[in-house]
Sequence to fold (178 residues):
Amino acid sequence: MKAAVFFPGIGYRFERPLLKGAMDLARGNGYSIITVDYGGFSGDAKQNLDAAVECAVDQTEKILSPVDWTHFEKILFVGKSIGTAAAAIYSSWHNLFCKKILLTPIPQTFSVEIENAITFYGKADPWISLEQVTEGCKKNSIPLSVYESANHSLISGDEETDMRALRDVMKKISDFID
Fold:
């Protein structure tokens, strides 16, 4: 059995293109889908990321507590934004060997060691600098894909550029999952 666990962002949910596309790819590769549907963040979550990450990790612990990870031969964690931190921290705390897809990480994502991962980042992302994400990826030997004018949702505002970027992300995710 294989499990793919999806960790959303604060405002970037499962129906949005990056998570929906990754979910479809995982499902197509025989993964059972588990969603970590946390919420209830304070109104200043974006201004106080440390508290928001703590909230997300606490909820992740509760949501995933019934899961017996020994039943799965392969585990995939897919995080978006704050979900990248929750996925990295949870897998570290539970010593889970799993592949990780980090879609637009935040600085707190790199607060733990991360193995077997890939990262996607937009240069216009206001949540983390290119220097921070590059340093975090280098420290953990994580391949990094950078999209020139893309924001935290990997959107540039140019439809053709955005579609090309989304196809590239999905191709790299597909290759990574296989």
Summary: The first strand starts at residue 2 and ends at 7. The chain has a mean pLDDT of 95. The chain is about 40% helix and 20% strand.
